[in-house]
Each structure stands twice: as C-alpha cells, then as structure tokens.
Amino acid sequence: MVVARLAGPHETDAGSQLIVMPDASMLPAAWRRRIRSLAGAYAVLAGLAVVAWALPHLPGWVLGVAIVLFALPAMPAAWHRGTVRRLARLHEFAVGHWLRRWAARRLLGQAATAILAIVAAAAVLLQAPYFGALEWSLVALSPLVYLGWSLACLARARPLFSHPVYAVSAATRLARALTFATLCLAWFVGRGLHAEPPAAPLAEIVYALQSRWPQVSSAIVRLALDAGAWAQGTLATIGSAASAPSWRVALALLVLPVTVFGYATAVAASLSLPRHEYRRIFAATLTADETPALPRRRRRAYAVATGLAALALIGLVWRVDAALGGH
After folding, report:
1. Which of 11, 128, 227, 239 could be a cystine partner for 15, CB 3.0 to 4.6 Å?
2. pLDDT class for 145, splitting at 50, 70, 90?
3. CA neighbours within 13 Å on the CB side: how many for 58?
C-alpha cells in the first residue's frame, strides 16, 4: 500500500491530506503471477510484430537467432505436459527398479518437442509479414482468451484430481485446446464475413504481393515470402471460378491457423505456469511436491545444452540461407 500526502496550494503541512493509493502488492499472489504472465506474453508478441516488420531486411544468421528466441517461450507448456505424464506413469513401477528410472527419462521427449516449437516459430515468423488486421487482432487477444479458459478449467479441475500438479496439467491442456479452437473459429468466421470477390486473377494478386519487397536480404525469407504470397492469393480468390486447386485451398486454410494460433496458445500457456512447475520440468527427480529440487549442476547442464543447440540451429539456418542464395 502506498500512502501519499496531498496539499493544496494554500495548505500547510498540518492541513495536508493523506490519500491511500493502490499498490500491486495488495493483489493476491495468484493474480500478480497472472499479470506477469500476461506481460511476458505481450512482450513476446510485440517482439514478433517488430521482427515481422523488419523480416525482409534481416540476414540469414539474424533469422536463425530470431527463430531460436521465439521458439523458447513456446516449449515449457509441452515439456510440462510430458513431465506430468511421466510422473503419473511412475506409479506403475517399483521403487528402485530400472523400469522406473527409464520411465522417468525426459530428455528425448523434450528434444522432440523443442524441434516442433522451432518449426512452429519459424512458420509463424515467415508468415507474419502477411498478417492483416484480423490475424494481429486474434494473436493479440490470445493471452486474454487463454487466461479466461484457464481460470474456468482450473476451477473445475481442482476437485477432480488427487494432487494439484495433475489438476494444473489437465487444466492447461484443456485451456490450450479451447483457446486454439476459439481463435481458429474466430478466424474462419472473420474470413467468411470479410470475403469479397477477387479484384484480379490469382496470378496478378500473387505477383503484386511478391513485389512488395523487391530487395530481400535472406534467400530463406525470399522463398517464404513467395510461398506466403501464393497462400494469401489463394485465400483472396476462394470461391471464384479461377481459384486455385482444392488441395492448395485446404493447405492455405490449415497452415496459417494451425501454426499461428497453436504457437500463440503455447506461448500463453508456457508463460502462465507457476515457478515451481518450471522447476518440476527440469528437476533431477520426478516428484509431485510443490518444491522440486533443481541442483545447480543440472541447471548448468541444461543451459550449456540449450546454448549449443541454439548455436547449431543458427549455423544451420545461415548455411542453408547461403546455399539457397548461391553465396
């Protein structure tokens, strides 16, 4: 609580008034955490908007750095789900048996999920320059939509599970699915309401879109922009006699909502996890305790592995970009 003293222009200190001003510390801890998670999610989305604006002018290695940075916030939610699933399976095996130790392994699952997050982040980044008002509006609403579904799901899940960790996992999974479905439905409805007869043939629309950025620094970005132009042109000519083949229409209608809204939902879910659930993801042993142990040596190992993987990915993107550009 903050107390301020307000005095008028002709008042002395004795006649001054005390005013009680609200303070963030007066909020419950759960709501302070939710506000921090919203701030983090919107920071990621703001960064996405900035990179989308600058994408045609970024060199290949900067694109690799951007993919890594935007993939990281989408990973923890899937890692948490895998961790809790393995924690539940441990009850099947005897303590000290090698089957229990094998069931507790998470590294391969985390690596596979990280690859999926990297692919999703790359797909979102390379599509972002073509986002319109509808896409940016839904992406901006995704943290709030997820928060609403999460609160509702968690309230229903708490009395249904034997331990809070299982309730959090189930509520997170259901809230992600409902948020994704809500955003996709809103996108399809918005597209339908704003659908208009195409102003030009498909080839002309695609050429006009591709001509927006005559000078692009990265060969990968150039290919992505060209592919995005075909996708946007396909969406713009849906329903016309000269529309693209049905398979291309289906692909255009699926790739954008699945990758973009899936990514936005994953970021919102990841950043809403409590701090002790992050510790559970990386803890040395699987446990349902609220304070899982996370030794310093394990933290360092994860940091080194993440750094090496990031450098390898950045180098790969740079080499592929150089090869495609004929350098």
Report:
1. 11
2. very high
3. 22
